[in-house]
User: Fold this.
Amino acid sequence: MAVPIYTPLEREMPERKKGYSKAAAFLGAVALVALVVTIVAVQQGQTQSLAKAKASPLKYGSKITLMTSYNEYIVVDKAGTVTMDGYTTGNNVVTVVNPKGKKGAVKYGDKISLMGQNGKYFVARYSGKITARSTVIAADSEWTIVGGSGGVQIGDRVSLKDEFGYMTVNTDGASSIATEITVMQKYLIGMPGQENGLRRAHGLKYGDIVTLNNNDRQYLQIDHNGWGTLRGHPTGNWDHFAVLSNEHREGHISYGDRVTLRAHNGRFVSIRTDNRALEAVSRSIAEESVFQILGSMQGANTGYVHSRDMVVLRGAEGFLDAVPTGGAVRAVTGDVMDPQASPFQIKKVWDNAF
Assistant:
């Protein structure tokens, strides 16, 4: 059997190939580790930068909101009463003040004072009852902010303590006699205008803009001819009505009140005397333009009328039907309300008018 003869260079080739393979494997492993380290470092850097971007320190002089565990807010009325309720018209805005007049960031353990929308400071009486009626800052209007360490951030949940105990705000008032912290003594710091808690459902007032829709999601509306119809939600403001009073009333609308509706075209809604069809063509208020607003069998029928209530409208000839008849909305004759009649849901238009 012939034995192959290798030159010295050929004898070294397998060893060189093994060396090259080991070197390549080592370099590949080093590159992979470097890539992983780079990715992790970038991700950590992005996470840290995002965390830093989200963190917003609370500073003295800031206007904030304090939301309770019930998603309601600490609110202050003009008389200085402090309660827990849904917010409206800035009554949940509180200003953080340093009792010594200092500026800068608020830290846990600091003593702070709180000013309500009425321009008065929160103050605790000897009984522990809290009101916002102090014009000066004293020991009974200072609160220690607790619940963490370091700087206080927007979005933190904090508690406030005075010489008596921890601030507790309920629907019937506020006090500081609690000796321990529960969920009732924790408040989420937020920014005015960015509330995600509950807004107070105020009653409708004369001059408000409303829509009226039936149970089939059809909206009462006035077309370009001034004719009243019930159709799907329009793209424009054909379904907008201003609720007014022919008796020049102001303030809240109560069940049983007589109201008039002014359509988007500036004309008053009325019922024709010949065929009882609904239209909005007149600039003057007549008896046919007056409706008594009543509660339906599906909802409230006393007190203030609120947005999203179910109501019926009774005109001179009878109740306005919430079901389209022959392409036109008509008033149903009869003096007695039919409990089975389809009512309207009245809703306030918050972000638009005419």
Summary: Confidence is low (pLDDT under 50) at residues 47-53. The chain has two domains: 63-190, 209-348.
